[in-house]
Please model this.
Amino acid sequence: MKNKRLIPIRKKLDKIDNNLLFLFKKRTLLVDQVLKTKKYKNEIVDKKRIKLILKNIRKKSLKLKIDTIVTKRIWTSIIRAYINYEFRNFNK
Model:
């Protein structure tokens, strides 16, 4: 038997996922703009910026009482995914 109390919670999670998709679409459009400014592939990975982003996410996560391991993993995945996207779309 399914847990009926899960249904409304899962609906809320689905709504958040849909909002995230919309935000990723907006983020992708911005990454496209950034990509147009880059002349060389070695400009794609900015280790200093990545370090700063992860540091800021950690600070904000602590302030908001969100598990920092979860947010670090999520942002590391987002960064890796967009680095991959930039390499695949460089000079297209």
